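Hi Y.,

Following your request, here is the sequence exactly as I used it, all 320 residues.
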Amino acid sequence: MNNILITGGAGFIGNYLTHRLIIEGRKVTILDNLSIGKIKNIQQWLDNPNFAFIEGDLKDSKDITKAIQSSQIVFHLAANPEVQIGETDPQVHFQENLVATFNLLEAMRKSKTAKTIVFTSTSTIYGEANTLPTPEDYGPLAPISTYGATKLGCEALITSYAYTFNSQALILRLANIVGPKANHGVIPDFIKKLQTNSNHLEILGDGNQKKSYLHIDDCINAILHATKTLLKTNFKVDIYNICPIDQITVKRIAEIVAEEMHLHHVKFSFTGGVDGGRGWKGDVKNMHLSTEKLARTGWTPKYTSEQAIRKATQSLLREY
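Below is the corresponding structure, written out as tokens. Let me know if you'd prefer a different format.
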């Protein structure tokens, strides 16, 4: 694992992964169009001889060809992470997730060196699972958002290319990731709302949405652990869930954010949501993934969902 390409490397998860890999002595190239990622996230590495940044787009084959060159492993993190946008503009998820992934796989197929891909997928590919915690072999997979659908489509493309063109693939289905530098999601949303009005917080849905939240430190440890585990095998494709051991409600997250902001008299109001209390169309109301498979390889998360939320809130408040 010497020459590495990270797509979306200037984004939230990508910049942390970049940091860890460079600290380990790896050579890292980032391809990012900066539509969501920020150059300040990787500023410290711009003069490092083991680092290269290419501002480019996965929808442009020339950019991919330039970036992939001598790379051996591709960490494919680039995507549009906004699930809600699928209700108003599903074309975004189709282009930024499916088309981008197909173009990357084509570049890897033509490459002489890039024969391993690590793909950050999502818990939303399971849809409203009847089994909780949900294991990797759960089915049928029926995503309820275009985001989840396109991510599942990416998984299928990646799997087919691994078997057809003799490469190796690792698919990682992530829970909700929180931590410093996060610029979207429930914690930044609540903080910004309370900074505008410290007496009132509007919460999308009925507040009972119950999900798992993983701290970014646990996420990066899991990604690298799973990657190194795969590279010791001859598996064509392997799939792991990455998730903490528990869940937390949206209402409890709101309480934690208010506590950390030292606001003791905040009035919560709930929009009621759609389709039985969801925050938006495509919002999975109850999510918790089984991590027994990854645990058997030696990985365990350090933080629970509540600990991750509190730690992330503390960090983000220092940034804002």
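The chain has a mean pLDDT of 96.

Thanks again,
Q.
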